[in-house]
Design goal:
This protein has 159 residues and is α+β, with helices and mostly antiparallel strands. It has helices at residues 18-36, 48-57, 99-110, 126-134; strands at 8-12, 59-65, 68-79, 82-90, 116-122, 138-144, 150-157. It has one domain (8-157): Aminopeptidase, CATH 3.40.630. The protein contains four helices and seven strands. The termini are far apart. InterPro entries: Acyl_CoA_acyltransferase, GNAT_dom.
Length: 159
């Protein structure tokens, strides 16, 4: 079955996975980098050193699909009950197969005390916005990053 939770595993990233995850991140975000020319915040422009720092100092998880590394998720703790989905990255050959929705649900289940989740995405990326809205996120604001890119803020409150 496509996207079945049994096919997905999420575990803290091991530093030995860094090269493979870094390559997936570059591949997944390269088209956005070219489209928006956002060399400050786009993950495809991130240095390997910065990527390693995120693995070490944030809640950084590797996503496995059918026991193969398929992507990563980077989460930041704002407070005991407020976390930010800083980045979710899935290998392009695993996108649009229902995995993303299940991964988001699994992450929420991993942190049952978190009642407020937030994230940012591109304002003009209808696919991402629809994905997050379908997952229960609501639009809360926006900020212009450069003449090509405006990010929108989303939040999800869990009762």
């Amino acid at each position: 079955m496509r996207g079945d939770k049994m096919d997905i595993k999420i575990a803290r990233t091991n530093i030995n996975e860094a090269q493979e995850l870094y390559a997936i991140q570059k591949q997944a975000f390269q088209s956005d980098l070219e489209r928006y020319s956002d060399y400050k915040t786009n993950p495809a422009a991130e240095t390997m050193n910065s990527f390693l720092q995120r693995i070490i100092f944030s809640y950084h998880y590797t996503i496995y699909i059918h026991d193969k590394v398929a992507g990563s998720i980077d989460i930041r703790r704002i407070s005991d009950d407020h976390f930010v989905v800083n980045q979710i990255c899935l290998n392009p050959d695993r996108q649009n197969q229902g995995y993303g929705s299940k991964i988001m649900k699994m992450i929420e289940e991993m942190f049952p005390n978190v009642k407020n989740w937030s994230l940012k995405t591109q304002k003009d990326n209808e696919k991402n916005r629809h994905f997050y809205e379908k997952a229960g996120y609501t639009l809360t604001g926006e900020q212009k990053m450069n003449h090509l890119l405006t990010l929108v803020d989303y939040e999800k409150r869990i009762r």
